[in-house]
UniProtKB/TrEMBL annotation, chain A:
Belongs to the NqrB/RnfD family. Coiled coil: none annotated. Its main location: membrane. Part of a membrane-bound complex that couples electron transfer with translocation of ions across the membrane. Keywords: Cell membrane, Electron transport, Flavoprotein, FMN, Membrane, Phosphoprotein, Translocase, Transmembrane, Transmembrane helix, Transport. This is Ion-translocating oxidoreductase complex subunit D. The gene is rsxD. It is a multi-pass membrane protein. GO terms for biological process: electron transport chain; transmembrane transport. HAMAP family: RsxD_RnfD (MF_00462). GO terms for cellular component: plasma membrane. The complex is composed of six subunits: RnfA, RnfB, RnfC, RnfD, RnfE and RnfG. It comes from Koleobacter methoxysyntrophicus. The lineage of its organism: Bacteria, Bacillati, Bacillota, Clostridia, Koleobacterales. It is found in: Cell membrane.
Amino acid sequence: MENLKLLVTSSPHIRDDDSVQKIMYSVIIALIPASLMGVYYFGFHAFLVIAASILGAIVTEGLFQKLRNKPITVSDGSAVITGLLLALNLPPGFPLWMAVVGSAVAIGLGKQVFGGLGYNPFNPALIGRAFLIASFPGAMTTWISPVDGITTATPLGLLKLQGITTDYFSLFIGRVGGCIGETSAVAILIGAAFLLYKGYIDWRIPFSYLGTVAVLMYIFGKDPVFHLLSGGLMLGAFFMATDMVTSPITKKGRWIFGIGAGIVVVVIRIWGGLPEGVSYSILLMNGLTPLLNRYTRPRIFGKVKANG
Amino acid sequence: MRKTFKGGVHPPHYKEATEHREIEKARLPQRVIIPLQQHIGAPCELIVKVGDKVKVGQKIGEGKAFVSAPVHASISGEVVSIETLPHPVGGKVLSVVIQSDGLDEVDNNIKPFGSIESLSPEELKKIIREAGIVGMGGAAFPTQVKLSPPPEKTIDTVIINGAECEPYLTADHRVMLERTEDVVFGIKVVMRAVGVSSVYIGIEDNKPDAIKKLEEAVSGEENIKVIPLRAKYPQGGEKQLIYAITGREVPSGGLPMEVGVIVQNVGTVTAIARAVKTGMPLIERVVTVTGSGVKKPRNLLARIGTPFKDLIEECGGFNGTPGKVIMGGPMMGIAQTSLEVPVIKGTSGILVLTKEEAKQYEPGPCIKCARCVDICPINLLPTRISHFSQMGMWDEAEEYNALDCIECGSCSYICPSKIPLVQRIRIAKGEILARKRKK
Ligand code: SF4
Ligand code: SF4
C-alpha cells in the first residue's frame, strides 16, 4: 500500500454531471423547431442565411482566440448559438455576406472584446443585429411572404403603417412575414418548453416580460394577444432575454428585468417610430443587469430584514 | 410534504454498498495513534509518558480548558512514542502511539454510573465531559460545552441529527437501526442534562427503515418525535436541520442555542449512552469504509486511533488503483495524503475513490447561470463572492456576506463550469477573518 499517489483537492469531491457544453447544446436543440419552421415557410435561402451566420460566428470566435493565443473553445456551442440566434433574427432573403458580417460583429464586438464567454455585458446576437440595422437598414427591413414568396410587410408593420390586422392563427403557426425564426410562436414555445423542463431557463423572465406587455397593451386599448404573437417578442422573451450571461442572477432581478423590458417594448411599439422594439428592450435591460444584481441581493438566511 | 429547507442539491446517494450491511467489529489494531487534538478547542495536555502501560479507557490526555475534551487509550498496551504525526484534518499534531499487548484489558476505574434518574444534570455533564465526547457528525465540538449554555439562554428543544445527508456514508443509519436503544437512552440523558422536554429526531426519508425503527422505539414517549425529512443535501447542516424542523432561523454568525435549540448527532448520543451505562469513554466509533476504490465496503466499529490503512485492508484492500482517500463524505470530506493517519472521534467514513472517479476539474468561465445562487442554502451569491476572492476584493466579499457561508460545497457541486466556488469563498473567509484580527 506504500507509495500511493493520492489526489488531494479541496471538497466537494463529486460534481454534478451537467456542463456548460450540455447547456449550450440543449439551447441549440431548443432552437431547432423555430429554425425548421423558418426554412419551411421561407425556403432554402433561409437555410443558407442560418448556415452563413453560424459559420461566421464560429470562424470569428476561433480566429479571435487564435490571435490572442487563448484555447479555442468553439466546441462549447456558445458561438453556434449566437450565430443561430442572429440568423433567426434576420429577414429570410438577407444577403449571405451581410449575415457573415453580422455574426462576425456579434462575436467580435459583442463577446470576444470583453474577454469571451461569460464576460460580455450585452447579448452578442443582439449586438450583431443592432449593427446590421444601422449599417443595412434596407436589407434588414425587406420581408417576404411565406404564402406567395413576394415582398410584404410584417404584421406589426402592416398594423402600424396601414392599419391592417393579421389573424391569430397565422401568427401562432408563423405563416406571416418576419424574421426567419421569430414568426412561429408554436415552434418557439416547443423549444422553450424543453428548456424550461431541463431547468436551463428561468420562467420568471419570459413570464414577467410577456405578462407586462400583455397587461400594458390591454390597458392602452391595444390587442394583447396580437402583440404577444407578433414580431420578435416570443423569440426574444424565451431565447434572448433569458441569456444567462446577460440577465440577472437573482430572482428579484429577473422579475425587474422582465417587467422593464416589457415596458420598453410597449413604449416603442405604441409611441416609437419603429414597429418592433424587442431587441432594444433586451439590450437596455442587459445594460442594467449589473445594477440589478447589486441591488436585488436576496436576504441572507438568518439575517433579519432591515427595519424588521 | 416532507419537511426541508430552501435550496440544496441532490447528489446521488451512493449508499447501496453499505446501507444494508450490519456494523462489524474491526480487528483489534496492533498500534493506535491518538492525537491530543480531535476536537474544536484547546488541545489536551499529555498525562502519560513513553514506556507507560495503559489500559482501555484510561485517560491519556487531559482537557483543561473549558472548550476541550480529554482523550483516552483505546487499546491496552504500552506507550511507545509521543510525537507530532499527520492528522486526518490536516497538518501534524502531537500524538500518543500505543502498541497493543493483545489483551484488550479494561481500566479498573471504568464502571457503570447507574440509572439516569440517580444522577443530577451536573453529574451527567461531568460524565460526558470526562468521557471525551465530541460531536461525531464531523464538526467534533465538545458535547458537554454544547450542553452547558450560558444561563441567559433558554433551551427548549433538542434535535437529534440522523439526516446523514452526505452521500456514501451509512454509519449513522446503521447506528439508528442496530443501536436504537442506545440512541433513545442517550436522548434521555441529554434531556435530563439540559432540562429540555421536547426532542425531535430528524431523519432523511431515504432511510425508511431507520425512521420506522425509531418511531417504534419512541412510540411510548410523548416528548420524543421522529421527523422524516426530504433527502436533500445539506439537510444535516445544523442551521438547515433546525429550520426544517422548527422553522427557526439561527441568526447569522450565531449558534443554535440562540433560537433555543441544541443539535446532537445520533452517533454522539449513542456514545453518551455508552458512557453512562458502562462508564466507557469514547474509544471507538462506527466508520463507513466505502467507495468503488475498496473491495468490500463495510460499516466497521473501529477503535479511535486505528490507522486508515488497517481498516482499508480489513475491507479487502484497494479495488484497482485508488485515486483519492477521503475522511468523511464526498461533499465536505477531507482528502488524505497518507494512509497512516488515524481514525479520530469525528471520522464518520473513509471513502476511497478510484483513479477514474478522482477527477481534477478544469474550471471554465462563469456563464452566470445562477445555479449556485439558486441552490445556496444561505442565499448567498457564490459566483460574486468567488469573483471577489479571485480579485482580492476582500471588502466586497465581506459585504456579500462571505462569512455566512457554511462551506457545504453545494455551489461547487452544481456549477456547470466546475468553478471551485467554495474553495475560493473559504479563501475569502480566511482573509476577512485575518484582517479582522489585525484591527
Ligand atoms: S453555477 Fe457556476 S457558472 Fe453558474 S453562475 Fe454560479 S459560478 Fe457561474
Ligand atoms: S456559498 Fe457556502 S453556503 Fe452557499 S452553497 Fe456555497 S458552500 Fe454552501
